[in-house]
Amino acid sequence: MGKSRLLLSSLLSVLLLSSGRATLLPSAAAAAGEPGTRTVTAPDLQTDETPSELLVHYTELPRSVATVPSLPSETGNAESIAPSVQLLTFDTLQACEKAAEKLENNPLVETVEPNYTRTADAVPNDPYYTDQWWLSHVKAPSLWPLAAKQTKPIVVAVIDSGIDSSILDFAGRIAPGGYNFTDSSQDVRDTNGHGTSVSGVIAATLNNGYGIAGVTGPFDVRILPLKTIRQDGTGTVAMNVQAIDYAIRQHADVINISQGGVSASSFEQQAIQRAADAGILIVASAGNDADKGNPVIYPAAYSQVLSVASVNRYNEHSAFSTYNEEVDLSAPGEKIVTNWPGGKFMSMSGTSFSAPIAAGAAAMIQAELPGLPPQETKTLLMETAKDLGAPGRDPIYGAGVLDMEKLSAALAVRLEKAKTVPVTGIQLDQQMMNLTIGNPATASGGQLTARVLPDNAANRAVTWNSSDPLVAKVDQTGAVTAVSKGQAVITAKTADGGFTASVSVTVTAIAPFTGDFPDMEIDDAKIFAIKFNTALKPDFDYTGYVQVAAQPDSTASIAGTAVQADPSDPRMLYVAKPSHWAKGTYYLTIKKGLPAQSGKRLNRDTRLKFTVR
Predict the structure, then answer these.
(1) What's the rounded Cα separation, in Å, for the pair 301 and 278?
(2) Of 57, 194, 251, 317, which residue is the catalytic one?
(3) Which of 42, 196, 201, 588 qualifies as a FRET site for 225, CA 20 to 30 Å off?
(4) Residue 403 Cα to chain centre, angstroms
(5) Is 190 tagged catalytic?
(6) pLDDT reported for residue 60
(7) What's the pTM?
């Protein structure tokens, strides 16, 4: 694959994108003391890039800290967000431009992109209604009787602005493990409102005497809230990538992303492919930019994603809903009454609310046909849609509007056939897996996906086993984790017929950033050197990281010690007194956190003794 070049001029360009930020205004009912408000969203200009951040993909996994490509000097911060992928942050646009040019010319760098912005897809809406017309419109109750046959809870990861977990409609409907990628915490409280509304459309509790009903009705469907949208309604590709990979590790069954931007990202698409490989369908909003020329919106436009447009209660294409060749399906998206933080209810419009209706349908499919591949789930939703517009698939409605009555009938046929189809074999998506331990810059886990043959086999249950869990362990979803150096064999076995398939796993130990510090003797004028296993920064002042003392416990510190990295061999650090060393024994401490040129830091305090003759 050729290197994806970053056009520096693109950092200065401004792209038109309808804002997903909602301004809350009290409705007439609320002003009179009745519950409920309405949302108004004013379009404005948004840049689709975070100009002070770059995403960088290296050509191969580093085998040691010493092989990690040097970061441009302009880099303010570097964070690993995916295998071989770093997010680099800069203080200014000019610094970002300079760094981008250097990275594009680095042979160890495969791809450089701006960290594009993603914006929640909500549009202007005036009136607010209390009836959920869309449930009967897509005939959701037709699927609800199948809930009695559900075999396991289904988790829908909602990558959005978080959730108000105190709302009664979400009691028992939130999966553990939610995470906030906007500030790297477990606080998923919704400061924007968008994520709470999207989650309510999917999974608000049915028949609890409160609020609304989610499209999944009586099914055991739980929301995994993954916060990537800030209070102002914006997020970034980097946060989406982290959230998608996290959803994979948490074994989500479906992912809903009601947000988007006009710029495609190879990093985001690769994360979505990893989700598809793990058996997860991603459903995304097609966008609300019909009045801006119908630009293609990402992530909805990626081929692995189900892109959902909006219709009204008359099956008319919503005036705001983006239409183009990438639209796969339509669902109601106007005047969708749903939850809002603080126990309020809102009438919302936008493809943000069409997508979770379809995501809920996908969740119910997974409840009935666990492990159905995402592409098959997507096809089933499209094939059972009610055709609208031009015959067949078209850019306005896609395959048509979601029809759960037809979907229910199709599921019944599949379930009946599945009762009599025996397993004939099993295949794994990999034959070998290489993992590493001991270095945070490299991967330490992987995901295996088993395909039970035939695809419509009745019993698709699989058990996983490791020949040596002390080297590599595997859970019952096929997630493999490196434990220690060595080799192990991971085996998947079908419950029906006992068919097996195996993968050889090799775990390599990668040395951390350390130094070679033997005790030594020196004369009273000698400048002595300490050697590290990776290059230091030649122009960096390391004085604060080196301490010389007369006592083993670092007391009686010796002042005036000079420290300097060798420009010709930056692995060498020289230590000297300005005049001379007095005879005796000294104790030198190299402090944890000492930075290397690569950005890595010394992993522990290290001490050595030296004697002056």
Answers:
(1) 20
(2) 194
(3) 42
(4) 30
(5) no
(6) 60
(7) 0.62
